[in-house]
Automatic annotation (TrEMBL):
Superkingdom of this protein's organism: Bacteria
Any Pfam family: DHDPS
Listed name of the protein: Dihydrodipicolinate synthase/N-acetylneuraminate lyase
A GO cellular-component term linked to this record: cytosol
Record InterPro entries: Aldolase_TIM (IPR013785), DapA-like (IPR002220)
Swiss-Prot/TrEMBL keywords: Lyase
Gene3D superfamilies (UniProt xref): Aldolase class I
Binding site for pyruvate: 212
């Protein structure tokens, strides 16, 4: 990957059978569906991939299956987050060796009582960068409970060779993105937003160049980014208005289950199972999700039919 990555880089859900076993064939169908959604890249093993309920062996297998199956059709970003620096290094090397185009990392965390110092966070990212040669995306998300102030992020971008992409999901993400871009200058190669694109328009106003959503409706969210970056702000706003009800329902009511429910309904995968302690979506929330998805004619809802 030589050009800076921008556009829409959605997270692939990890499909399971009804008994909870990983569905490898379903994973391949998910990847094909996402490529047909005209995504610019695919992220695997992220939080919306239920990475926190996967064993190490399952992670390794899903990484290999996904990278071999995509086979360079689009760049694949592999999430390698872990509290242990050595485990992150091991995951990063393995992902690069298998063909990952980029890595994504959250800062190390293990609950509010076990958060490393800024020095420890910087050192973990630096150690991973020293071990690989592909870009690293820093995921700044409330889930970790770790504060990543702009001066720390700028220092990472300027002093750590492969840290150049940033996914901002914190409250008031637009202000933080704008401050990061202003202070980091050309060292900030890929400022991205997340959270299902619920703050995308504000984040584009702040200077972001792409978004990492779920796999629910990337083909409909992508024009918001492409039109905005082309200077067609009114067109971007119109696309935003059209997408927002489904974006909001996913973000506030459904979470990571949304893409799975829609993909099952559309024949992409055979089950929308989520591993315990996660629970299935309520019938009420599911009904509204499918109604909104049908109104938008999302690809995932009809891909396998």
């Amino acid at each position: 990957m030589t050009d800076a990555l921008k556009g829409i880089l959605p997270v692939a859900p990890t499909p399971f059978h009804d008994d909870g076993a990983v569905d490898e064939a379903g994973m391949c169908r998910v990847l094909d569906c996402m490529i047909d959604q005209s995504v610019d890249a695919i992220c695997i093993l992220a939080n919306y991939s239920e990475q926190f309920v996967l064993s190490d062996a399952e992670r390794d297998r899903l990484t290999r299956v996904s990278l071999e199956y995509v086979a360079g059709r689009v760049p694949v970003i592999v999430t390698v987050s872990h509290f242990s620096t050595q485990l992150v290094i091991d995951r990063a090397r393995a992902a690069q060796d298998m063909g990952a185009a980029m890595l994504m990392m959250m800062p190390p965390y293990h609950g509010v009582g076990l958060v490393p110092s800024e020095a420890g966070i910087f050192e973990q990212f630096a150690a991973v960068s020293d071990a690989i040669s592909i870009p690293i995306m820093v995921q700044d998300a409330p889930l970790s409970g770790v504060s990543l102030p702009v001066p720390l992020l700028v220092r990472m971008a300027k002093e750590i060779a492969n840290v150049s992409y940033f996914k901002m999901e914190t409250p008031f993400a637009a202000d933080k993105l704008a401050a990061l871009i202003e202070a980091g200058g050309t060292d900030i190669i890929g400022p991205f937003d997340g959270e299902e694109a619920v703050t995308l328009l504000a984040d584009l106003d702040a200077g972001c160049t792409g978004t990492m959503t779920s796999a629910l409706q990337p083909e409909l969210i992508k024009p918001i980014v492409t039109e905005y970056l082309a200077g067609n702000i009114d067109a971007a706003l119109n696309h935003w208005r059209d997408c927002l009800p489904l974006i909001n329902h996913e973000n506030r009511q459904c979470g990571l289950r949304a893409a799975k429910v829609v993909m099952k309904e559309g024949g992409v995968i055979g089950s929308d199972h989520v591993r315990h302690p996660l629970k299935p979506m309520s019938a009420r929330t599911r009904t509204r999700l499918l109604q909104l998805a049908k109104e938008r004619d999302v690809i995932a809802l009809r891909w396998g039919k």
